[in-house]
Design goal:
Blueprint: H1 3-15, E1 28-31, H2 33-36, H3 52-64, H4 67-70, E2 74-76, H5 102-112, E3 116-122, H6 138-148, E4 152-156, H7 162-178, E5 184-187, H8 202-206, E6 211-213, H9 222-234, H10 236-242, E7 248-250, H11 263-275, E8 280-282, H12 291-297, H13 300-306, E9 315-320, E10 323-329, E11 335-341, E12 349-353, E13 370-377, E14 382-388, E15 393-397, E16 401-411, H14 412-422
Parallel strand pairs: 1-2, 1-8, 2-3, 3-4, 4-5, 5-6, 6-7
Antiparallel strand pairs: 9-10, 10-11, 11-16, 12-15, 13-14, 13-16
Helix pairs in contact: 1-7, 3-5, 6-7, 11-12, 11-13
């Protein structure tokens, strides 16, 4: 990269640092890509093609079936929504057959249901699906999205190079800020740079983007879920420090409710995405998803962990015999602890751990007087009892599954008062 480009990148990112007040907790909602991809043949697939009807259907389900009230508020369009060319004024417009009323009308429909609209574009010359990209059109595209009432932009990186991306992603952030409309900015920039330093500067990224993809696209497969978790664990010292209110790592969509995951694997993906403080975007068919999958995605305890206002990403502290132990610090002296099995032997595994191993500790907090901790398993919906930090906790965990605990401190004062009442 030449010195003039370095100066331009620095001036753009410093002068137009992210200032939209969004994503104070990880965003939640529904998006099309993993389940519906780039289906454009509406004659053959009338209910599954990328069209205004699909997104109106999903908006109705989010609003009417209780998803919105749980926090799932974004309806996100991915690739293949637009015409294959810009109009005579250089502006994007939707495919007129599949979106006959246009994106602005769709945004109004979604907003009427107290939901938010997300849209897709690509920094390169074309989107990954071959539609017009934003390179050289950042300002006009940002203004178009704002005029339409868009609330979130996913900005992909196909058909671009490293040098151009270093300018283009900050420029789009600048253009979005300049519209004065709060538009959550989701960047795929780090995913095209290998996801790690030195090619990815997470300090700079947090000043430009609200959320960012930094690993490959998830497929509908348990192996992909495991691979993503492993990558996040291996690189957790870099990634966890980058996550905070206003900017979060994005390990990609939830595939719960699609075709491949068992019920236990579905719980595992949902629970681990909560431990990672990840955006929660379902990519499934809300019209036909099973009741069991829906119950997983509606788990209020897991959602509360994900949406914790402290915004800290969890870390892995135990990794032995394909059993992982994770801990995440929450607000108000609380913690979340997860035990994940990636074993495939179909036999329950007897596992013991202590809360200290999961970094559940208050020794560095002079205002805390915790002695005991209560553990509540969030998927089973039951208490596991009270433990001191060094007590051994024993569980039996099936293969390819999770046990996830909400951990609450109990003070010496409470314990003494409770003991006196009992005695």
């Amino acid at each position: 990269m030449n010195i003039n480009l370095v100066v331009l990148v620095l001036s753009v990112s410093c002068a137009y640092a992210l200032d939209n007040g969004l994503a104070r907790t990880p965003p939640m909602g529904w998006m099309a890509w993993e389940r519906f991809r780039c289906i454009t043949d509406c004659q053959t697939f009338p209910k599954d093609c990328i069209s205004e009807n699909l997104f109106m259907d999903m908006a109705d389900r989010l609003a009417e079936d209780g998803w919105r009230d749980l926090g799932y508020k974004y309806v996100r369009i991915d690739d293949c929504w637009m015409a294959k060319h810009r109009d005579d004024h250089g502006k994007l417009f939707a495919n007129e057959t599949r979106f006959p009323h246009g994106i602005k009308a769709l945004a109004e429909y979604i907003h009427d249901r107290k939901l938010k609209l997300g849209i897709y574009e690509d920094f390169g010359t074309h989107t990954c699906g071959g539609y017009p990209g934003s390179q050289g059109y950042e300002k006009v595209d940002a203004e178009t999205f704002a005029e339409w009432g868009v609330d979130m932009l996913k900005f992909d990186g196909c058909y671009s190079n490293e040098t151009a991306r270093a300018v283009g992603y900050p420029l789009m952030g600048q253009a979005l800020n300049a519209t004065k409309r709060p538009i959550l900015y989701s960047c795929s920039w780090p995913a095209y740079q290998g996801g790690l330093p030195p090619k990815v500067n997470y300090t700079e990224l947090g000043e430009i983007c609200n959320v960012w993809r930094n690993y490959g696209d998830i497929q509908d497969a348990w192996a992909d879920v495991v691979a993503i978790i492993e990558w996040y664990a291996t690189n957790q010292d870099v990634l966890a420090s980058a996550a905070a209110p206003g900017h979060f790592n994005d390990p990609d969509m939830l595939i719960v409710g699609d075709f491949s995951l068992s019920l236990e694997q579905s719980k595992a993906q949902f629970g681990m995405w909560a431990m990672l403080a990840a955006p929660l975007f379902m990519s499934n068919d809300l019209r036909s998803m099973s009741r069991e999958a829906a119950e997983v995605l509606r788990n209020k305890w897991v959602i509360a962990v994900n949406q914790d206002p402290l915004g800290k990403q969890g870390k892995r502290y135990i990794n032995k015999d394909k059993i992982q132990g994770w801990g995440r610090q929450l607000a108000d002296d609380r913690f979340a602890v997860a035990v994940l099995s990636t074993r495939t032997d179909d036999v329950p595994y007897h596992f013991t751990f202590t809360l200290n191993q999961m970094k559940v500790s208050y020794f560095n907090n002079p205002h805390s007087y915790a002695s005991f901790f209560t553990l509540y398993e969030v998927f089973e919906g039951r208490s596991y009892g009270m433990f001191e930090a060094n007590d051994e906790i024993a569980i039996n965990i099936p293969s390819s599954s999770i046990r996830m605990f909400h951990v609450m401190p109990i003070s010496y004062e409470f314990m003494n008062r409770f003991s006196n009442q009992v005695l």
